[in-house]
Design a protein that fits this description.
The chain is mostly helical. It has 25 helices and four strands. The chain has a four-stranded mixed β-sheet. A hairpin with a 4-residue loop joins strand 3 and strand 4. The longest helix is centred in the C-terminal third of the chain and has 24 residues. The radius of gyration is 24 Å and the shape is globular. The structure holds zinc ion. The site of zinc ion has 5 residues, from helix 6 and helix 11.
Length: 459
């Protein structure tokens, strides 16, 4: 729930972004778009000549690192961080890091399925990507891709291009408005000095197709040379392309290579080389290790998905947790919560929701209506009613399973209380809420649940 406090109202956020954007345009005009770029080849393995402007942009990256912390966006789990650093070490080519690069691996509380690297060597993995990946090879591929952007000095190269800067300007507003929670995007839009904003936007959201391809191929080469399964890269692309809650917006993603294209060029590379022989057992152990290390952050990410009304994504993530660890009452409870919150939504997006008009309507509904209003609107349709009937049965079943695994799971009782309240079964809701408060007398939402309890009609 820390997250909720960090999120501004959509209206305020948009206003601030617009203001920041206008200020930024002025700054851009006054500083001039083209920098004094030394005429020098910036191919790999050759020293990169930093301009004065670039050195000051580098400082902005360090500032952004600190700002993510200050805004409470950095998720701290020492074991997980050590694990990420270890995978990083296995995929980064040996030797000293290049000038002005210090490798750091951090996790951001952000449910978008994304990862990015700042040119100073800070590699950020969103909780959303960690909760969606299936094994260690995929994680290594993601890290390898980001490492390539840093080693190739991609952000600096693109920042030297006028066309790229204009493209990034177009992206800034869209990103801040469309990214769930606005977390990373709003920190940049509101916090960064105006000249840095464009640079950071390029670094995080807007590498060109050519550079994305270069990063993909670098990652694939590294996987081929290490003890990972390079084919997992193809699975990774498909996984990143999944858009359960129909949120991907064109201008934001338009510069990414298309899925089929990415699969084709990586597949071609893989077929042209022979990978290291890695045993099935070692890959299975790495998979278990990955899922174990990310179980906690995945639960946290499911909560972020709930907060951002991404119920389908939450359901997929919870199902993944339950598949991995079916004996965890906590995991089962997240699955039950997902079904309950999915409410009148179908499990998969409908054909209408996937149409361009449907996408717009969905976004607007999220922007203009409160969660309750959105739910009421959906309940008015036959499809909504029918989805709710199925989802509430699934929710109840999973809550019961969670309680079979751990009879003292207070959260399962609270979930059941909420479910029965919505099903208009006040007597059962009262019983469940009472059990919750009994089992968790110091619950942070005690007052809220007590109020809900008091409002229910006693027989
Ligand atoms: Zn990239």
């Amino acid at each position: 729930m820390i997250r909720q406090e960090a999120i501004m109202s959509e209206k305020n956020k948009t206003l601030l972004v617009i203001r920041a954007f206008i200020f930024f345009l002025f700054a851009l005009v006054s500083t001039g778009l083209s920098q004094n770029v030394p005429a020098q080849n910036t191919q790999k393995n050759e020293p990169f000549a930093f301009t004065k402007v670039e050195l000051s942009l580098l400082e902005q990256c360090d500032l952004l690192d600190r700002r993510f912390e200050k805004e409470g966006l950095v998720y701290t789990d020492e074991a997980l961080n050590a694990y990420l650093a270890q995978i990083g070490k296995s995929i980064i080519p040996p030797g000293e890091p290049p000038e002005h690069v210090q490798w750091r691996f951090r996790v951001l509380r952000d449910p978008a399925t994304n990862a990015f690297a700042l040119p100073n060597g800070s590699i950020y993995l969103h909780s959303g990507i960690l909760s969606s990946l299936e094994n260690e090879s995929q994680l290594a591929a993601v890290i390898g891709h980001e490492v390539a952007h840093v080693l190739g000095r991609h952000s600096y190269k693109e920042n030297r291009s006028y066309r790229k800067k204009i493209a990034a300007i177009n992206v800034i507003g869209t990103v801040a408005r469309s990214v769930p929670g606005g977390g990373v995007a709003s920190v940049i839009a509101l916090g960064a000095a105006s000249t840095a904003r464009i640079f950071l936007t390029i670094s995080i959201y807007h590498h060109s197709q050519d550079l994305e391809r270069e990063a993909d191929l670098f990652a694939a080469e590294r996987l081929l040379d290490s003890n990972y399964d390079p084919k997992e890269m193809l699975a990774l692309f498909k996984l990143l392309d999944r858009d359960y809650d129909v949120e991907q917006i064109e201008p934001f993603y338009s510069d990414h290579p298309k899925l089929q294209e990415r699969i084709a060029y990586v597949d071609q590379l893989l077929k042209s080389k022979s990978p290291n022989a890695v045993s099935v057992e070692s890959l299975a152990a790495a998979r278990t290790r990955y899922l174990m290390m990310t179980e906690k952050i995945s639960r946290h990410d499911i909560q972020l998905n709930f907060d951002n009304r991404r119920y389908r994504t939450a359901l997929a993530r919870s199902q993944k947790l339950v598949n991995f660890n079916p004996n965890s009452s906590e995991n089962m409870c997240y699955l039950a919560d997902s079904y309950r919150l999915l409410g009148p939504n179908t499990m998969e997006p409908t054909g209408e929701e996937l149409s361009p008009d449907g996408r717009k309507k969905l976004l607007e509904m999220k922007r203009k209506l409160t969660p309750d209003e959105e739910e009421r609107t959906r309940m008015e349709t036959a499809a909504g009613q029918s989805a709710w009937k199925t989802n509430r049965a699934d929710a109840e079943e999973q809550y019961r399973k969670a309680l079979e695994l751990d009879a003292y799971n207070a959260v399962a009782h609270r979930g059941l209380g909420m479910l029965y309240e919505r099903m208009e079964k006040p007597q059962q809701a009262i019983e469940e809420y009472r059990k919750y408060l009994e089992l968790k007398p110091d619950a942070s939402d005690r007052m809220i649940i007590q109020r809900r309890l008091d409002a229910l009609p006693l027989k």
